[in-house]
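Bug #77: duplicate submission created two jobs. Keeping one. Sequence:
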Amino acid sequence: MTRNKHESTNQIDIENLLLEYDNFLNFLQRDLSLKNISKTKLQKIKSKIKKEVLHYDEICKIYSDINRFKRIMRVLEEKKDNLNRDTLKRMLAGSEHSPFYSDNSEDAFFEFDFASRLINLRSYKSINIETKTDIIFNEVTAIECKKIHSGNSFEENLKKANKQILEKLNSGGRVKNGLIAIDLTNIFNHEKFREFSKHTYRLFLDEYLTLGHTETDCLHAIPRDNNFKGVVQNFSSALLEFSFHSMLKEVSANFQMNKDVMGVFYQAETFIPIETKDTRGLIAIRAGCYYINNQYLSHNDNKYNGEDIGSFLRSLASGI
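Kept job's structure:
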């Protein structure tokens, strides 16, 4: 059983983004007492933007990365006294020259990023991100986060996450169910998505120009247009679902997800670089979909914290 949920399409204000990125760097040094930030990829990314002449596509990737680091600020602030320091250090490791979202430090980032989804839920009561399990949500749900770097590693990571949750369930304590979170950014068909989205943007641009808008006006107006957002978000979710199910059908027939694992929440991040005659901009997209484990439904009621399982999983994709 699979469903999808669209997220907001956000246009990035570059100047404000860099300002907030500075706040993020200062927070890491001041509040988390992290030293030598100037030697990490975070500072190098910022320096690269200011000093180098970069291709526009590369600029878009860097700005998108900055936006992502800004996004996890709340969870780091809220849990600053109870963070897994090893995970934090892994997130800051790696090279600023690594390909888009393929660095191993992304595994660590994804744990904090998924935690940032959870603390925005209405059902949020507590979150633990300092145990061997990636995340314990509301003391009862074990969540294992896996960044999929290639299609060949999908089955291995799915089985590993399922096994890790089972071990947590069998270890005693209050945990009674689990959820697998997967990032498919490296599998997502970015080229097809951008080709479709840029063409869609140009079609909307033509219509806006007939109404007397300037191209600069459109750069702000079109990303906020609900019709444009609906078209782009539906297509991103469709591509994401195709990626997930094409890999899921290749998983060994003898593999069965544990009956106490609710299912899989999977996401992908991308962006649309907008270039017209007079303007340039960037629209960041994060799509989220979910797959419900039928074994879970067969052995448990269709509720999580009093709400429908599907509603709970849909809520994970909203608001960021």
